[in-house]
Amino acid sequence: MELLVASGIGLLFAAGTYLLLRGRTFTVVIGLTLLAYGVNGLLFAMGRLNTDKPPVLSLDLEAYADPLPQALVLTAIVIAFGMTAFVVVLILRSFLEVGSDHVDGTEPGDPGTLRTYPDGSPVEPVRAAAADSQEDRS
Amino acid sequence: MSHWLVIPVILPALVAGILVLALRHDILLQRITSLASTAACLAVAIGLLVQAAGGAVDVYELGNWPAPFGIVFVLDRLSALMVVLTGFLALLVLLYAINGWDRRGRHFHALFQFQLMGLNGAFLTGDLFNLFVWFEVLLLASYGLMLHGSGAERLKAGTHYVIVNLAGSTLFLVAVALIYGVTGTLNMADLAVKIPAIPAADQALLQAGGVLLLLVFGVKAALVPLHFWLPATYSSTSAPVAALFAIMTKVGGYAIIRLYTLAFGADAGEAAWLAGPWLLPLALLTIIIGMVGALASRSLRWLVAFAVIGSMGTLLIAVAVFDDKAMAGALYYLIHSTLIAAALFLLAELIAERRGQDGDRLALKPMPAQGDLMSGLFFAAAIAMAGLPPLSGFIGKLLILDGVRDNASAPLIWATILITSLLIIVAFARAGSLVFWKSRTVEASRESSELATRHYPALPVVVVATLIAATALLTAFAGPTMRYLEAATDQLMRPTAYIATVLGPQPVQEPTLAASPEVSP
Question: How far is CA A29 from CA A23, A84, B419, in A?
């Protein structure tokens, strides 16, 4: 059982890490979700893997299922769920506003998104943001 | 056990709910409620600081469950200091934001209160998993605040910020799982008791968990090479949010100080001072990257963002040697760098506003409106940030240099801090001379003369001046401050009283068997 659980968690982490490093935001979100699953498995396994053990604490028992990791996993699931919902909305908004689902917000090699100052020097991303906020204000 | 201890967390939580549900259409009521709540938090925090200054550690058991079974809030000198610093900064930032920033998007005040709740919770908790939860609370609020007012560039930087922090949270859970699996507890004081007794066979897992936590806190503290998210995030978000985020990097610093002095401190056996050998070289790299980045910046906000990275490097160098004197210096520098980073972020926006189309770009353009006032404020803030006398940056760096004197790598640390100080002075001098000095020779454009006649509200300027004045006060009252910080360091480095207060006079013999390997079938 140890081998099965350990390699399952390892597989989730490997796939999650691979997807996290991809260039498109959707795969990144899937990667984060897989990582969260892997972590849940790891947290759960940290209470030790045993079967047919009583769940409730009693001093007479030699061995029992540790209840704490289950509480931790529940918290982790709720938080990961909320975060995933948030990040999906964020990338959707970002896609609609920026026009690209690449994590950097620009298609690789696309010169169309390069902005310049009136004097011709290229605009750093942040400067463009400041320019935007100036526009908002006026 | 007094209930005051939980107020800095409960109050913003309640107020945030009221702001979202009942007051969301009335910006004036929102402002009043939000200001009142933040001011009340600050008042309670000052009360807690006075209480903690006596030296007693106070414990609040949530739901009256005794530690290590329940979650506890612990008040010692360091956490009281951090809560006061958060309250003070938040109040000033809020005064700045009510000048118009809070109308740029919805729910600014509610998110602000949630952020306060998360920050105060992170500073007060005495439980590792609970620290994770507070991290998530403050991060989720910070995602909302960071994107406040929106705009394409902010969304781009925001996507990076959110994804990096989500990956960080995942690693936090991995570390928590490893440490729980080995020790069977997550209460920090209980960890301090259990870790010395961990057998050699489990040391690898324990230390892997400990170093992973350093990685997680390093992401928050912008420790190189985990700093890439910071400059774009801080410089593309709105000024008040960036100013509030000045305390966010300190959350990472605080967590490093707390965990690695308490659980992995002098008494931790094989895992003693686990963070030191990793933290010192990375902190040296951080200060170099920060200051060189500041030198290469093309706008004021990038300059300040990199200066923040550099100041985190300075702070973490002093933490990494884990020495009494250096730690007290680090805490002093922590207060200073939070206040001055916030002042500079706000000031950068004030200057950008007064330059119109040119914004905060470092280029030779006409003099900003209200040039004398702005240049005076910038001069004072730059002096403080660079660490020149007479403001508090100088004293902070001096204390740190003096504190690391006994360390084996002192020459390296001294050389790095002094050379990078020169770099940051050059960076700020270049920025100041471009924006304020040489710009006198540039003829006023139509826009700049129009901007010069415009009326500017006084409140934001007063806020910035107050923050700078606070660093002056920190200099004037460096003596009493240092006495408090030395006492705080004493509590950190010798946590026996902390542990005894949290776990009670006779620590309960824990019947948890999870840690013992024979449970496994």
Answer: 11, 7, 42
